Amino acid sequence: MENSTVQPPVPSIMVVDDTPVNLRLLTEMLKERGYKVRPVANGRFALQTAKHDPPDLILLDILMPEMNGYEVCECLKADEQLSGIPVIFISALDETMDKVKAFKVGGVDYVTKPFQFEEVQARVATHLELRRQKRLIQESNEQLRKLEELRDNLVHMVVHDMRTPLTAIYGFLRTLEMLEGESLSDQGREFVQTALASTEDLVEMVSSLLDVSKMEAGEMKLNLTQCELLTIAREALAKVEPLKGDRQLMLSGADEPVTVMADAELIARVFQNLLGNALKFTPDDGQVTVSIESSADAARVLVQDTGPGIPPEYRERIFEKFGQIENPANKQRYSTGIGLTFCKLAVEAHGGQVGVDSEEGRGSTFWFTLPRRASVPQ
Amino acid sequence: MKRILVIDDDPPVARIVKAALDIVKVEHALDYCSDGGQGRAKAAQGGYDLICLDLSMPFMDGFEALGEMKRNPKSAQIPVVVITGAQEPEIHHRVMELGAAAVFTKPFEPVHLGHVLQHILAGGQV
After folding, report:
1. Interface predicted TM-score (ipTM) of this complex, two decimals
2. Does residue B50 form part of some domain?
3. What is the pLDDT of residues A170-181, one digit of tens each?
4. Contacts A–B by Cβ distance under 8 A
5. Does B60 map to a domain?
6. Residue A335 to residue A331: CA distance in whole angstroms
7. A210–B87: do the CB atoms touch at under 8 Å?
């Protein structure tokens, strides 16, 4: 791996002091404790040698001719390669202001002279350990970021490649239905229709996955027009009709048209996703109800089901990409997939909100709001 | 009798295009090839009324093939309908700029494709 930051077995410490006696004393005592020590007698040379071979920690005197410790520290902090090295000031200055300034220019600690070596050593050890842990966290963060990127690229590739077989499955099922439908039995037709509806689900998943990565990157452009939500709701209901089985599927209280500025295609898919989701978790004798409320400045869509409900701790997580839910009954884990993530991002792109109210054992109501006039967030 | 050329590295697409034309009852003869390079050469031999073209193919992709077909006077007049796995609007836009008559995202609705092909074959624009 590039930029590998494997710790040298012995930490190296640079001691910067213009007083030869102090320099020798600190150097010898630290060496005795097993550190690799580099004594340096002035600030300019300290910067040069730090650049050449960065130490793990710097013990820095303040009062030095030519370039004082504060200036040295500022230069270190301004250099990207060196800014991570912890600097402990060690100085005869003991006013609060001097100490505060030391921290201000980037120091991590301050020891006053005359010093007790045990104290110096304890502070050195503490800051070396902090530095080591910080590096570990940075490394694992970087690794996580790379893994996430790899996952997203893989998903993108798989999803793209899925379109080819889906074209054949969907195309042939559809032509079978159109050209040979008459000669099929009722059961045959039902099978074809169910297979088609499932294929459409899969197509929707593929599109959502690609759209989600676009929306996450802020690259999705909305095609805003005046949309009537009741019409979109009816079309979405018709689309999921083949999936409903014996469940009841209803649009309640629908008389007044509700118009909003929105991307009709995206919102239609939000409806379909929420309906598909509701049907999936509703038992055969249950029901799914869509209702639309409107106020002066927003419309609110509710999709209510009579499924098992969602425990409070999962009500946010289900909107996360590939969020996981554990069924306490059988300890099995379920992925929440991508559909709800798509809904959340699509609604938020319109300046709206999305959420779920639920009562365990009695069902869930997924809802989203859309402002009447789109105030698209940047 | 309309002569149609389908260029796609996935053979079932040609069969679905055929079915789509059957649904809208357009009499046709259909040729198929799986690569942009071959497709462009076939198109230049002339005689086709319409070409269906995939974008992502090995050897020569659809962008290049479309560009060459439109530059070659022997094939420049044949309407090309792009059928692609790419859903990105930018790609659709680019393809239309290159001179495509229409763009479909896979998977597509066969009846819809049938109607659009019928309309283009009758000299219409999309």
Report:
1. 0.85
2. yes
3. 999 999 998 888
4. 57
5. yes
6. 13
7. yes
Q: What is the pLDDT of residue A81?
A: 93
User: CA torsion, points A121, A122, A126, A132, in degrees to nearest 10?
Assistant: 30
Q: Tens digits of per-residue pLDDT, B67-117? A: 999 999 999 999 999 999 888 888 999 999 999 999 999 999 999 999 999
Whole-number Å distance between alpha carbons of A244 and A332: 25
Q: Does A281 touch chain B (CB under 8 A)?
A: no
pTM check: above 0.80: no
Instruction: Tell whether B126 is covered by a domain.
Output: no
Q: What are the chain B neighbours of A210 within 8 Å (beta carbons)? A: 87-88
Other Cβ atoms closer than 10 A to A68: 16
**Per CB distance under 8 Å, which residues of B are interface residues toward A?**
10, 12-13, 15-16, 19-20, 22-23, 85-89, 106-111
- Which of A164, A175, A210 lies closest to B19 in CB terms? A175
Out of B13, B15, B87, the one facing A207 most closely (by C-beta) is B87
The chain B residue lying nearest A214, using CA atoms, is: B88
Per DSSP, the residues of B15-84 read HHHHHHHHHTT--EEEEEESSHHHHHHHHHT---SEEEE-S--SSS-HHHHHHHHHHSTTTTTS-EEEEE
Q: Are strands A57-60 and A87-91 parallel, antiparallel or unpaired?
A: parallel
Is A217 within 8 Å of chain B by CB? no
Examine residue B32 and state whether it is found in any structural domain, yes or no.
yes
Residue B31 sits in a domain whose CATH number is 3.40.50.2300
> What is the number of structural domains in chain B?
1
Concatenate the DSSP letters of all residues of A1-16 into one string: -TT--PPPSS-EEEEE
